Structure formats: structure tokens, C-alpha cells
């Protein structure tokens, strides 16, 4: 695992020592190379995990997330080039350092064995993200956004720390490799109910669960493009990953404790999808769509069946790539019109046809068109929730319909129709932007050929 | 002040604390405290103006009261045990009175009212000495009598201190008052774990002193005592803004910085002793502290505070001497991976 972590850490000296015209080239190239190294982790030979040491391991759940994380860093660097082009050199280097620091913490989080180490790195990802949102965001609302982001997550995760330490007291070790073999049923008592709540609330806030999702639209909208990309693609998945890991220790309370959260998620996904239909702000629409997709993941994780775990994992990877791509597309609009309002940049198909092709592909994957992996994820979740309770099919079906509605609404508003008179002088698409979209889309399409690598550990 | 006299007075302060920390006779401890108090008054009054006089007077009155209460507790202890050696306190009444006296010296709730006002009235360097060095002596006595302290009182004071330290700092823009409320909250964390594992109290004290030293050095370097003047540091030394950011986040207890280490260890110790609600409450109340640190970082490093055009071209005539700042900064932010080394503190 050090073969990934040390090169990522060394990206920081690379940034600071590069010449002015080479910083983007150096960092993007080397981060692409690092993502190639991480692809070797996808080869999971047995049902057991690949254990690299006592501190790091990778199993079929964390390997795809790790590959996604390392794949995303070069994409983030490519996407940030334009809005940082006018900044002084030191600030560019600081930005790249923040991204690299975040990347290091994320890699270590996904591969940590010891749960307290996972917790510390989980919290550590907050600091660079906060700095990226607050320092490099564009509107005054970013201050509020940073505070909401930090404090919602911290309020949820401090009880998790106490819960993890009390579990360590109970079981003697929090090393995940040990616990998966040593699992005992949690006795039924009031304090164990609070233990369940303490363990899960951190990840519920991070996912986010519908009632606790207020930080997400703020943070996603106010962040610069790299911040939005990494938040949508990876940081939300930290919550899903944490939930998938910690629910193994929390039986049998999950069977009855999960009900309120299931209800909130099922209702929340409909509500947030419906809100998307009424959004004027493009980034806000994509942010609420993230909440809706993650609500599906929460439902899947709480049902705890093999198919639902497969669906959750596939949905996390698919949503990561799709959401990040949508944010890049929205950013390409923002860089041209300096506004996030959808109708100010409409009818773009006439002006930028290749970008319209990417918009089409992104919207189609967002609404889970077969045979993309988004469909596989959603389908597995819908089927497993149907087997859990027949009535959920109504809500799931309604959600799929509304998702299709708002994705097509976004597509049609930005691409079709007559363009406005004020945008006929926008710059044509850069090769960098087309490359960015292609790099997002290619893994998504290729994975639909062999989805079993992202189906997680219950395959 | 005449350098010779200043050195003598400073040495007396140091000597007083050393006497407190190293004595085994209760009377010597009282003498040490009095020596410390009398010698620090001229240091607090380095600048001679009514504000400083008021602050020094308040400090003297509270600390003298505390010393007298300490003397009373010592005498009651003498009555019940017949000897002057410091081990534990033999009588519950004496224990309560001594704990209250030491709480007054430290600035724990409900005896915290003097800390913001005194810290605000004195210069930055004196405030530095007040908030770091002066805490060593009372804490060492608390460490030594920790087996016999009444747990209820201790925990009540600790939790209330964390609450008051967090809540009280919310409305402040003066940096010295912010540091004072931060000191109250950190003292609360330290005393909470005193009954369970006093080693962690010492660890928390060590890391708290490092972080407070760093913060004060950074404030002295940019000669700023209000949030507004701190917000101009981006113009004078841009690197200082990053350092302020890192140190403030460390004080707030965010992983992966070293300020997280004492909080984590204290929560671990408390949880091992089967109190679960208490550390959860303490951790959540520490978030109040984090809020006003975040506000400081917002105005200093993460945004450009509105300022007049004059402020953007500030002259700096001489660089202030900052002792030991780089090692302090490294230690107050990067110590978390060294947590297994805690075993040396035993």
C-alpha cells in the first residue's frame, strides 16, 4: 500500500519544486501514474482481503473506491487549471498541495485496518476540504458553507469516536481484520441502542441522510470545481464505506434500529429528486441529485442483503463518476458565463455540439440507463428493497421516474432550444475539457462490460 | 524596566513555581505560591496605565484569596493528619476547600471570572506568562492530591468550565479574551481526567502550553490584539496566516493535528472507566471552541477581510524577535503520529 501512499505524499514536494510552466503537467502525469498502480488492487483473488500489513488492507469493497479516488486526482487537477490560471504561483501550488493532502488522507482512510485510524483519517479529510471550499470558493456564501460542512460532520462523528473506543474496550481490538472473524451479536439493551446510533450518525451525516443533508447543497455549490468533484465522488462514499464496514459489528440491533433511517431515506430520495425539478441553480440540482442517489445507498446498506450490498457498492462507484462528470460539465458552463443559473446558458447544443454529446451521456447515466453500472446499482437496490418490503417498489419506481425527469430537464434546458443572444461569444470547448469528460466517461462505459469488479465483497 | 530588575523578578516567578512543584512540605507550597504571586504583579504591570493596574489588582485579589483558602485547607489537613507532608488530603472538607482554592488559581468555573478581564488588561507577553506558566504550579498540586479529590466537584467544575470556555468566547473579538476563554475550556478538559489518569492531565497541559505559546508568539509577531488587526497579517507576513490557521485548528482539536491527541486520550480514558455520556458531552461542547477559532481563521487566512487601502501598504519598522517559533509550530501541529510515545510519560 505504501507504493500508492508514498508517491502521493511525494506529489507535494513535486508541486513545490516544479517550474512555473510545469506544475500542472508534472502533477497530472504523476497522479495518472499513481492511479495505474492502484488498478492492480482490483485483482482480488480470494474471498478474503488482500492484506498488505497490519495497518493497510484492501478488499473487494475498498479496492474500487481506492481506484476511483486515485483516478479522480488527475481529473481534478485538469479541471482546476482554468480557474486558477490567473492566480499567483504560490497559490496554485497551495491549491495542489491541498488536493494532494486530501488525496493522501482519502487513500489511507479507504485502506485502514484499525477503525480508530480510519476515524482519525476520516476527520482529517475535513481540513483540506474546508480550506479548499472557504479559500477558493467564489461567493460570500462559502463561509457559511464551510461552517455547516465542518460542524455537521463533527457533531455526527464525535459520538462515533466514543463509540469506537467503547467497542475497543468490549472486544479488545478494533482491527478490522480481526473483528470480521470475531463477530458476536450485540446484546439487546438501551446502551447498545445508543451505541448503534453513535456509530451510524457520523456516516448518516456524511452520506447524507435526508434530514441531515443541509450542508451538502451549500458545500457543493460554493466549492470550486475540484472541491465539488472530490466531495461528490469520494467524500460522500466515505460515509457509505464506513457504514458498510461498521454494520458488520452492529447486529442484531440493525433489524429494528434501521427503520427510522430507512423511512427517512425512502422519503428523502423522493423529496430531493422533486426539489431537483424546481432548481434554477445548476450545481444545486446536481447536489440534490447526489443526496437522492446516496439515499438509495443508505437504503441498501441498512437492508443488509447480499444483493443490496452489491447494489450499494456499484451505485457508489457509478454515482462517483457520473456526479463528478456533471459537476465538470456545470463548471464548463460556469467558466463561460460566470453564473450557475441554468437558463442563462441554454441551447448550447448549437454552439458546442461535442460538449452536448458529453452532456447527453452524463444525463443518460445519471438517470440509470441500461447497460450502465448506474443501472446495475439501482436495479439491485430496487430489487433487494422489494424483497425486504413489497411497498417500497412504489417509492423506488417514483424515484426512478423523477430522476429521469430532472436529468432530462437539465439536459433539455442546457442543451436544447434556441440559445440566448448573450452567449454566442463564448469560447469553444478546450481539448482539456473534452479530455476530462472522456476520462470520466470511459471508465463508466468500460465498467458496464465487466461490472463484477465493482460489485463488492458479496459477489 | 531595568533589565537587571526584570531578570530578578522573572527569576522569582520561576523560583516560586519551582518551589511549589518540588516541595514536600505544605508550608513551602504556600510560600511558593505567594512568591509567585508577588513577583508576577510587576510583570503584569509592565506598561503603567490604569487598565493594567486594574487587571493586576483583580489578579492579586483572586489569587490571594485562593492562597488563603489553600492555607486553611492545609491547616485543616494538619489538624486531621498531624503532619505537613504532601501525599493526599486526609479530610474531605480540606479536600473540597483545597480543590476550590486551586480552581480559583487555575481559572476553573465557577471561579473563572477573573481570567478574561485580567488577560485583556495586560500586554501580550504578560498574558502569555499568565496563561501558560502560572497554570503549572496549581496543576502540579492537583496532580499530587488527585487520589483524594471529591469526584463530583471535580467533574462538575470541569464540565462547566468547558461549557463556559466555549460559550463565553463566542462573543469576543479581542484576541486576549479569546485566548482566556480557550484557557478556561482547556483547564476543564485537564481536570476532567485528573481523577482517572493524572498522566493525561500532564500531557494535555504540555500540549496546551505548546499551542498557547505558539498562538501568543504569532500574535506578538504581528503585534495584533484584535481580530481586525490580525486580519491584516496577510499583508505583512502571508506565511503567518497559514501558521495561525494550523495552530488554531490544532487548538480546536481537529485531527490530524496534535491538538486532537489530548482530547482523544482523555475520551479514551474516560470511556475505559465506563463514563460514556460525559466524554460525549465534553467533545460536543469543545465544538463551541472550534467555532470561534474558525471565525478567527476565516478573518485571517481564508478570506480577505475588508480593510482600507492604507492597511494594504503597512510599513513594518523592525521585525520582532520570535523565539523558538518554528519548533513550536511543528510540535503543535504534527505530534499526533507520535501518540504511542505517551508511554514515556508514565
UniProtKB/TrEMBL annotation, chain A:
Topology of the protein relative to the lipid bilayer: Multi-pass membrane protein
One GO location term (cellular component): mitochondrial membrane
Functional summary from the UniProt entry: Core subunit of the mitochondrial membrane respiratory chain NADH dehydrogenase (Complex I) which catalyzes electron transfer from NADH through the respiratory chain, using ubiquinone as an electron acceptor. Essential for the catalytic activity and assembly of complex I.
Species name: Equus caballus (Horse)
Membrane-traversing stretches: 21-41, 61-80, 92-110, 116-133, 145-167, 193-216, 223-244, 256-277, 284-303, 309-330, 351-369, 389-412
Lineage: superkingdom: Eukaryota
Family: Belongs to the complex I subunit 4 family.
Domain NADH:ubiquinone oxidoreductase chain 4 N-terminal: 1-109
Reaction catalysed by this enzyme: a ubiquinone + NADH + 5 H(+)(in) = a ubiquinol + NAD(+) + 4 H(+)(out)
GO BP annotations listed: ATP synthesis coupled electron transport
EC number per UniProt: 7.1.1.2
GO MF term (any one): NADH dehydrogenase (ubiquinone) activity
Name used for this protein in its record: NADH-ubiquinone oxidoreductase chain 4
Keywords of this entry: Electron transport, Membrane, Mitochondrion, NAD, Respiratory chain, Translocase, Transmembrane, Transmembrane helix, Transport, Ubiquinone
Subcellular location: Mitochondrion membrane
Domain NADH:quinone oxidoreductase/Mrp antiporter transmembrane: from-to ranges: 112-397
TrEMBL record, chain B:
GO terms assigned for molecular function: NADH dehydrogenase (ubiquinone) activity
GO cellular component: a single term: mitochondrial inner membrane
Enzyme category, top tier: translocase
EC id: 7.1.1.2
TM region(s), chain numbering: 26-45, 57-76, 96-115, 151-171, 202-220, 241-261, 276-294, 322-345
Catalysed reactions, semicolon-separated: a ubiquinone + NADH + 5 H(+)(in) = a ubiquinol + NAD(+) + 4 H(+)(out)
Cellular compartments annotated: Mitochondrion inner membrane
Gene Ontology terms describing biological process: mitochondrial electron transport, NADH to ubiquinone
Mode of membrane association: Multi-pass membrane protein
Alphabetically ordered keywords of this record: Electron transport, Membrane, Mitochondrion, Mitochondrion inner membrane, NAD, Respiratory chain, Translocase, Transmembrane, Transmembrane helix, Transport, Ubiquinone
Pfam families: NADH_dehy_S2_C, Proton_antipo_M
NADH dehydrogenase subunit 2 C-terminal domain location: 290-342
Domain of life, per lineage: Eukaryota
Protein's UniProt keywords contain Magnesium: no
Residue ranges of domain NADH:quinone oxidoreductase/Mrp antiporter transmembrane in the record: 23-285
Subunit structure, interactors included: Core subunit of respiratory chain NADH dehydrogenase (Complex I) which is composed of 45 different subunits. Interacts with TMEM242.
Function: Core subunit of the mitochondrial membrane respiratory chain NADH dehydrogenase (Complex I) which catalyzes electron transfer from NADH through the respiratory chain, using ubiquinone as an electron acceptor. Essential for the catalytic activity and assembly of complex I.
Family per record: Belongs to the complex I subunit 2 family.
Protein name: NADH-ubiquinone oxidoreductase chain 2
Organism: Equus caballus
Gene: ND2
